[in-house]
Amino acid sequence: MPRAILLAASALSLAVALSVPTASLAVQAPPGFMVEEEFPDVSLILPIEFDLLPDGRTLVATKFGTIHVISSEGMLEPTPFLQLSDITTSGDLGLLGMAAGPDYNSDPWVYFAYTVDPTPDVDEDYYSRVERVRPSVADPNVADESTREILIGATWPSGIPSLHSSHGLGALRFGEDGTLLIAHGDGAHFELTDRGGEDPDAFGPGRVDAAEDIGAFRARSVQSLSGGILRVDRATGLGVSSNPYWTGDGDDFASRVWCYGLRNPFRYDVRPGTGTVDFPGALYIGDVGWNNYEEMSIAGSGGENFGWPCFEGNWAQPQYQAVTDTEAGNVNVLCGAGANADNPTAETIPPIWWHQNNPAASNPPGLTAQSIIGGTFAGGSEWPDEYRDAYFIADFLQDWMVAVEVDENDQVVDVHPFLDNAGGAISFRRDPATGDLLYLTLVTGEIRRVRFDSATSVGSELPSPETPSSLRVRVSPQPASTQAAIEFGTPDFETAAVVRVFGAAGRLVRTLRSPLGPVSGERSVVWDGRDERGSRVASGVYVAHVECGGLQGSAKVLIR
User: For a 10 Å CB count at each end of the chain, is N or C smaller?
Assistant: First the structure.
């Protein structure tokens, strides 16, 4: 998700969650493009993933473990499809991956992935689990929980290590060969150079194999399920024999690895038309960086090693390059080691990278990024050439979206600006009927449609927050050390405002109320950085949600 998205911004890690851009600016699109809210009557808190069902319904998952159904008429079904109970939503973790099976009409399954806390009294010893469930025959808008099947992570030792509050699960997608693809970060600490030894309670009998106590270097080992993208049989969760590191046993971790060397491949997709009966297709991946670079990588053949933690972008990562041993004593995964059973493949340099602060150091130059969100291929037949069938990718914190034009050999041709003020894009899908781009915003909880209208000569935007549909919310200073002013403009009515501050896991931290305001104009509420009990909150990113006169708006609040 975005960059420790719910955690201290100084950590700049991505996971997804609440380090959200403000919702006060209108989306800007190129001439001829229209950006529209797909379901204006639906509002959700922290939606994190969505998928389109073949009958016109839409599935939407929230970070907190709920999967909702939006009807083909655009209304939220009153009963959730599924509500998870055995889930932790700490930091950037939670229910982060969800997808409908590729043959949903004939074989309906919904696949989902979430974080489990096996020892609630021990900090940050988590693992990731992948499951699937069928809809009820009597009511297809509700899951039949008796059909739930765990594909990966029935137990702690068989799960995917996720030992900090970020860099966990990412998207679930299906290859064109029908295999299930699972993204997972390195499960390591982002606030330090993690060589292992930071989470002693997570390793040992009945827990994670002690051989994996190598921190971020798990991403550099095909013997780990962390730090890459897995390719498994969608009915069993086992590896398939055409995987690059197949051992002869589908239960082996190496047998499930498709590509590795990724820090946090939160969102990615398969390029249409590139798969075969035994090959998933080319994977286009957004990998969230650490100190300097965000990446877009392409797994065109399988087996690629994308370099983390020894490389960020095209840059040798000095802190990890300097590590001389791991807690588990495994030197095979270190940056100076040659090819071996743990790390059999040389590094692949990504075709595109963005520096986090210096636009001249990006490739191509011009933009900076701080929390890259891999996208999807979209574009209808009437779209301009540079956008049609391009790969659309966004940055969550810088709040831009670009279209990456590629040739038939997966070589980047050009990168075209597309949207500004996108609103916190967190997931993408292509409308199979029209080719339109659909994306989910974490900030406003909307699914938006981007379509092209050749009769429109100017770029379009969603309604400005100054119109009576939402509130324009700002926070100052950013970051705040002791207190923050939550400012908002109100339309023509006189009423009190309610401000609710939510923390990293989406829990309510504080409720504030403004006095009756002017008929219209600017108002503010000061938050002193304390919770309802008067205790000072921890450093990190929070969200202020303002409701006034039936309207609402949100903005991030950074406490240092």
Answer: C
Nearest to 185 by CA among 152, 214, 228: 228
Dihedral sign (CA 85, 43, 60, 55): positive
Each as own residue / partner, the long-range contacts of residues 332-336 (CB below 8 Å, 24 or more positions apart, any chain) are 332/221, 333/214, 333/217, 333/218, 333/220, 333/221, 334/217, 335/310
Looking at the predicted structure, is the pLDDT value of residue 459 above 60? no
What pLDDT score does 4 carry? 47
The predicted model gives 124-145 an average pLDDT of 96
Rounded to an integer, what distance in angstroms lies between the CA atom of residue 195 and that of residue 104? 43
For residues 515 and 348, the model is more confident at: 348
DSSP 21: P
pLDDT averaged over every residue in the chain:
88
Two structure tokens written together for 557: 């609040």
Sign of torsion over alpha carbons 448, 453, 455, 459: positive
Going through 117-245 in order, the beta strands assigned E by DSSP cover: 126-135, 143-152, 160-162, 169-174, 180-184, 228-232
Tell me the pLDDT tens digit for each residue of 475-529: 878 667 778 888 877 665 567 788 888 764 456 788 888 766 555 567 788 998 8
Please give the full DSSP string across 311-325, using - where no structure is assigned: EETTEE-HHHHT---
- Output Rg (C-alpha) for the chain, integer angstroms: 22
Q: What single-letter DSSP state applies at residue 428?
A: E
The least confident of 88-92, 372-376, 480-484 is 480-484
**Pick from 249, 188, 247: nearest CA to 219:** 188
End-to-end CA distance of the chain: 21
Beta-bridge mates of residue 152:
130
What does the DSSP 8-state code read for residue 9?
G
- pTM of the model as a whole: 0.83
Burial of 434 (0-12, 13-18, 19+ CB in 10 A): middle
Write the DSSP string, 253-318: SGGGEEEE--S---EEEEPTT--BTTB---EEEEE--SSSEEEEEEESSS--B--TTTEETTEE-H
* Cα gap 25→106, rounded to integer Å: 43
